[in-house]
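User: Could you walk me through two proteins back to back? I'd like the raw sequence and the structure tokens for each, with a short line separating them so I can tell where one ends and the next begins.

Assistant: Of course. Protein one, sequence then structure:
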Amino acid sequence: EDCTCRYCYHLYKDPVLLQCSHPICSKCAQVQFSFELLNEPSKFLPLKTKHKQEKTPHDEKQTIDISCPICSAKTTLLVTQGITKLQKDTQMIENIVKLPKPPVKM
């Protein structure tokens, strides 16, 4: 199996699974999540009233979609949780560990 992230094109680092079951580096998923969050900040900012921030009833359910770099399927993440609920790809981690080590330069 290919052990190269299709987002950064490096060996997977701390791979997680998207909802489509394809892997991505956790940092790559975080980059996508942060980009989407910064792309439309007004969509996610709490409402301000009378010098204080108030939560709206839907705050806990605001979502961001990130795209799979392999199949383009969307993975929906809660804004309040970010990528923390993405499952680690233990199979890919095992595959990476089994890769031959590069020769040591002397």
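----
Protein two, same layout:
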Amino acid sequence: GEQPVYMIVLFLVIGTVLMVLGLSYYLPIGAGIQPLDMVATVIGQLVRKTYGVGLTIFYLLLVLGTFILGAPIGIGTIIQAVVIGKLVDWCTPFMGKISGRLAGTVK
């Protein structure tokens, strides 16, 4: 059957937190840039904004493409597209210090 709404919200929050913490942790120290990260970085540079803004633009373009192709789009998809980039920008200064210390790139 279908999951209760509270479980869907719980998994959305947990997934969002893990994704944001992961991106905020490895991006500042350059621990393996994925193609998605590079696209978001380039978009951010093109609009003269942050990585997070580039990520949001990229995710919204992906949502638009999904819509055009006729695939289902849930509220979680839209929330993720809009929120992840801003949260990454917000968490990166803090997480970057932690990852930098652990990687030996920041004292």
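The mean pLDDT is 90.

Let me know if you want the two compared in more detail.
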